[in-house]
Write a structure and sequence with these properties.
By secondary structure, this protein is α+β, with helices and mostly antiparallel strands. About 30% of the residues lie in helices and about 45% in strands.
Amino acid sequence: MINRNGVRKIIKAGIISIIILIVLGYAYFAFHNFVNGPEIIVIEPKSGISTTTSSIKIIGKALRVQNITLNGRPIIIDDKGNFDENIILAPGYNVSLLSAHDKFGRTTKYKIDLVYKKE
């Protein structure tokens, strides 16, 4: 014989478990950007390289950012966070600084060291 009270308790516990999982999943989704913070990924050039050209293009991706600057100058990112900016190098050692801010006020920075060897 089937115990109806036992089945009801199992179904009730299952439904409550599913609701808790949905709430936790939504909370993770809602706080994902807050937990991870802003991130800058530079694809090109690699920091520390030497070049013989006075102009170089910085290509990368900015994740979870509200705005981003290169050496204090705002740069444009597309809807996927991609950016590419040309910079002019002075002869010798050059430092470029990418700085990104998110909507929660957090900041991340990425420093690129480049050496321009004039021919």
